[in-house]
Each structure stands twice: as structure tokens, then as C-alpha cells.
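Bench notes, bay 3.
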Amino acid sequence: MLTLYQLRDRYDQYGITAAPQSNAHRLALLKAISLLEVRRESVAAALLKRQIYQIRRTGDWDAETYALIAKVPLATYEELRAFAESEEGRLTFRTIFSTLRELEVFVTFAAIDFETRSVDASTDRNFAKRLAPKEIHKFAEQYIGVNQGNLVEFSYRTLGEFYRDLDLEKDPEAFAGTKRERFIAILSDSSSREQAIILRGVLERFPVDSQPWRTSEKVAEIKTWVARLEETGGVPAPKPTLTTDTVAQALSDAETLIKAGGATRGVDRVHTALHAYLRHVAETAGLTLATDPGLTEILTVLREQHPAFQAKGPRAEDIRKVIRGMAAIVDALNPLRNKASAAHPNPDLLAPAEAMLVIHAVRTLLHYVDAKLSEFARSQELAASPKSTLDVA
């Protein structure tokens, strides 16, 4: 195991306990990511968002100390080794350690090891959306079903045939343990694409109601996992230049919820981010808004009164039509957020595809507004700057 970084006052590495990472420490890592993103520590946040590190208790029982531990593919191992040796790498780990200590998780060193079967984050674009351990166990035990430690309706022979039928190079014989343990190990070790294929294969082999515990509710949940695993890149998450703590926190919360629970969980937070952002833009520009203005009203005021959004240049009228169309989209976001998101205890929530459509629409609008503001600011700076002697000549 290679030590990537350790605190100056800790030159000794105590043994790492075998106990798995706790839920409290998983939450601490999510909180650390949110703090790092708000503080514009993008490299440190990106490193933790790869979800390769776990917080593990060290063997120093005289003090409550922890380590950041990761087992990664060889290519990732070499990438992180070189990064940790750089000045940027040392500063990044120092920032991560400081943030975790702020959250009362006293990490003293970070270390990595490599294993040949691990999924490589650099080649799996949906790496961060892969199934969490609790989802994998829930799928195996509560949908397929377990009897005396073994998967029901699978023999060792048919388990191997299952992967061959899916055209996946997975050999259960390469893993030790029961059929359940081998299935969980293979699913845990698979890429996001392979996990989606395995989930679909199981749903086809064991359809809803084929056993009393295989309910339609469980099938619906599994399909949301498949949708998450198969998501394409889409519109990237925005990072507005003109922002507030509320906007930054809402955007960070949205990304965390989308990755942890799917697009449906993130609709409320992106709506909040858009509302707070547009209001801040209008107030910063000195535009008059009504008391507690709605999202549609704020966008209308910006479109009609803010100088950055006055369409000029080629096809100006067509651009105005596009902006009016965006206003219609914004008008539809309010009932979607209030009646079909997790903002309220609604019985019927948006399906993952529709939720992602809403999120991409909000992201597109945020990107557009931020780009127009930046463009307008640059034009104002140029207009205010004194002309050079060459310009005068």
C-alpha cells in the first residue's frame, strides 16, 4: 500500500481496521464535497467525487484517527501516485484533510493499493453513478432472494450461464464464497454499463410477481437505478460566475442528490438554485421586483429590462422567440416542482427521464444567463477602458 499524503506530526502508520466504512463517514465525504465545491476547491472536490476513497479507522486506539484508503486499478494507481508527488497534489490532499477535520473526522494519512479487477474511473463516464453497496445487497437479497446464504433459483452452473447469455466476460468461478457472495462481488466489480446490463438481465429472467417478494414497487426502483447507470452526459452542471451561497449550496445539493438517488431527487434543488440565481441577478442589476416574486415573473423582468438580454445581431427576432419559449418552460417548472418532486410529500413523482429533462432545462437556462452576463460585463469593461495612444492616432 502506497502512502500518498500524511500529516507532518504523523510519521507512523498504524494498522487499518477491517471494519467497513460507516454511514456517518459516507455522509462526511458528501459534506466535504459540498464544502469544497462552495469554496471553489474544484480539484479536491473532483478527487473525492470519484468515490474511490473510504474513511477507515486506524489501529491507534489511543486517539480517534482515520485514514483515506482506496483500492484502484493499476492505471488509476499510477495517476494518483504522480499527482500526489506534485505540489498541486500535496495542496489538494492538505485541503481535503483540513475539510474533513473541520467535520470532526481526524484523518492522518491517505493511501492507495491497486487490484486488477477494479473498475477504472478514467474509463467509466458514469463511474460516480454506479450502484452503492446497500443497493447491491438490496437487489440480491430483496429482489432475487436468498435462502441459507445462496441466491434462489440459481445454481453454480446457471449463474455462469447467466453472464454468458448477457455477453459479459464474468466468471463466478474466479470468486470465492456462496452464489450470493459471488454475485455481489461481480456486480460490485462491474462498470456502470455492465451493472445496467446485469440488472436488466435479472428483471428479464425473474419478472415482477414471479415470486411474492418481487413486487412492482421493487421493479420500479430497480428501473430508476438502470436509468441512472445509463444516463448520458447531457448538459453539464453549471458554475455561475455571479452567485450567492444559497445558489452554490442548492446546486451542490442537487448534484449530490442526483448521484445518490437519481434525477427525481434533484428537481427541487435545481429549481431552488434557478429561482435564487435569477432573483440575485435582477437585484444586482437594480431591477424592481414584486414582493416574493415567482420564477416566471423574474425571468420576464430580466428579459424585458436587463440590458444583457436585449437581443441584437443576426436573427434577433428568432432569438427573442427562443427566449420567450424558455419563459414558457420556466412557467411549467413551478407545478412540476410543487406537484411531482420530492419538495413536498407528493404521491406521484417524475420518472427519471422526465426529471432529467427538467434538470437539463434548468442547467441550459443557467448556462445561458451566466454567458450573457459575462458577455455584457466584458463589453462594459471595454467601453469604460481608456483608449491607447494608438487608438487615438
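Next record in the batch:
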Amino acid sequence: MTAEVAILNKLGIALAADSAVTISEGTNNRKVFNTADKLFELSQAQPIACMVFSNLQFMQAPLQVLIKEFRRTKYPTGTVEQAASALLKHLTRYAKDSDEQIKRGIAYGSALEFYRVILGRANHLLERRLADPTWLLEATKKKPFLEIISELWEVAVSALERVTEQWPDAEFVGDFPANDWLNGIIHQVLTDAEQSPPDDRLDDVTSLIIKMMRKATPLESSTGVVVAGYGEKELFPTLVHYDVFSPLAGALKFRKIEVVDIARNGPRARVMAFAQREMAERFLFGLDVQIKDKIVRFCRQAVSAIGDLAQSLVTFGNDAESEAFRNSLKTAEDSFASDLETLGMDTIRNESQRAVEDMVEFMPKQDLAEFAEALVNLSSVQRRVHSGFETVGGPIDVAVISKSEGLVWVKRKHYFPHELNTRFFNRIAEAK
């Protein structure tokens, strides 16, 4: 994990990134290093930079190696969006040229993660049913046990299909793999699993996994990619934010999260935090997503408890009146929670955001850099005083990009001293 910040106004962009990288095995964190590079100059022709966060590996290669290789190539730089699109195409070419075993291994891992979710849902349904001691006895009187299990799998798959439909569609650079290729991968996953679905549900499970693969799901690990700066045709800065997922047989899966284009008749300033952004958002806007969710959940529970008490104190003529009253209370509870979230929380956040960005609009470039560094440092201090791994920390790299000066490093770590490596810096100067 990491903490990164971008601050934009009409004078330029300040980018700041910490240096912590967590080495993980599954859900277990094993080690944190505080020397990782996450902020890079992306173009030798135009002032454009790139920040990455979360998963820093791509097809078993370090992303920083692929980004620096991309920097040496010629690609369209008329706009920042063109440069960002070219970067995705560069990653796609690398994915297509990868060994077939690597492609199959990555697809296998994605299918396995999705199958574990489906299996967990099916087992949860079965455990709930078995908690009723009379259920199994009554159910087996009507139909065979294997048929009962098959029906539970059908319910689980149908429920997850409805959830999957609500996830946003992913975009792909390249062609989505043929069903025969994916079916072979998924068949291998289901064959290798300790607990396989019933034979008559194999097709349903396979179809659901393929649907999940077409979505930008919260179940998959992804890499945050932020490309920011000035294209040749742009007077004011632009930022593009992508989530990039594991490729499928050379087709790069991604989702465009946001494009911020500073303009005279559009946004005049923006403060953006990425990855572990809760501390920055609390400072900027008074609350973050986690606090907002906790408040809404607490209010829902409190209002529901009041409704239950009110219903217990009222005498109804029949069950229909009681049910109508309960439905009215439920409608009122949902309306209150919705208004609290939109008219309440979102209003507070938007007002705070406007107040901050009204000041950021006029900040000089040096103040942009100091502000960006301070926001990253807030997250670092918060992680330091909490238990567990310090997943934000190390030196903070800071760069400012402007149309006139280009990309300027305000703070940048090196693993070697300048005075002992003059030839290195001379080579860099000659290359430019």
C-alpha cells in the first residue's frame, strides 16, 4: 500500500508519493521496504509524469522497469490522455509477448479467486440451512440430497449474478480471450479444487466466472496508474486515473476512474489523494469514506431500533395493519439514510472541498509542492502511531510540473550519493 497526492491548478501540478512497499503472500503481509519508486517521469518530449500504487508488478515484471522502457519510445503526446492510452498499449504489447505459461497462470489465479467467492457463498447457504435441525430431515423426504445441494448452488450463483451485474464493466486493450481458452482454464480450476460444484452446475459456474472477468470487480487486485502533466496541445494541466487489472491472454483489463482537465470554464483546481487516502480526506473534507459509512450504519441501526420500539407500543387490529405500519417505517428509514448520505454527508464534503480548492486555485508552485508533501506525511504519521505494518512511510518524492519549466524534482531519493556518480548524471544530461 501507499499514499499519493496530486494537486492541480492553472499554474501546474504537484505530485507526491511515499516510498513504502509491502511484500505480501495472499492476505498476509510479510515485509515492508521504505525505498520503492512510485513517481516517474513518463516522457522525454513533454512534461508528463506517472504515479503507480497498490500492485507494483505486471506480468511478473516490476512496473518501474516497463514504465522506464516506455519512456524511451516514441508515442503521441498531443494530450495527456493520448500519452496515458499509449502507456496502456505498451503494457498490452508486453502482456501479449509474455510466455504462454505466465498468461495461463494469471488467468488461472483470477478464475480461482472468483471461484472461491462462489464456493464461499454456496457453503454459507448450506451452513444456514443445516443450522435448522429439522430442515435436512424434511428436505430429504421430498427429494434426493444431491438435488438439494444442486438447488443451493443455483441460488448462490443467481445471487452472485445479480451482484456482478451491478459492478462496472471493464474495458480492454486487445481482444477478450476466446471462450474455449477461458473454459479450459476454468475447467482446470474446478478440477483442481478440493470442493467442486455439482456436475449439473458446472456450466453455470463457468459462465458466472467469465462474467466476473468482464467486470471491474473489487475482488481482484489492481494497479492504480495516474498520468498527469501537459500534452503538447494543452495550456493547463490534465490528470488521468486508471485501475489496471491483470491481463487475460494478452488483453489488458482496465477501468478509467477519472479525468481532471483544468480549464478556464471547467475545474480551476483539484486536490486528489490515492491509495490510503483516509487521513488526507479527513484533513481536507472533514470526513472520509470509512467514517461516512460508520455514521450512516450507526444512524440506520438507531432509527431501526426506534421503529421497532414504536411498533411494539402500538396495538393493531390485524396482521395487515401491522405489516403496513412496518413497511411505512422501513420506507422512512431508507429515506432518512439516503438523505443523510446525500444531503448531509455529501453536502459537508462538497462544501469543504470547494473551500480548499478555492484557496488551491491561487497557490504558487512551491506551496503546491509543500501541501502535497504534507498530505502524504499525514498518512505516514497516522500509520506510525497505529499497530501493524507501517504501510505508508519512507522518503517522500515530490515533483512539480508546469508548462514553462517542465517536470522539476523538489525532493527525490537516490540509493547512491551524487558526488560519487557524476558520470551517471552526465549520461542523463547528454541523453536529454
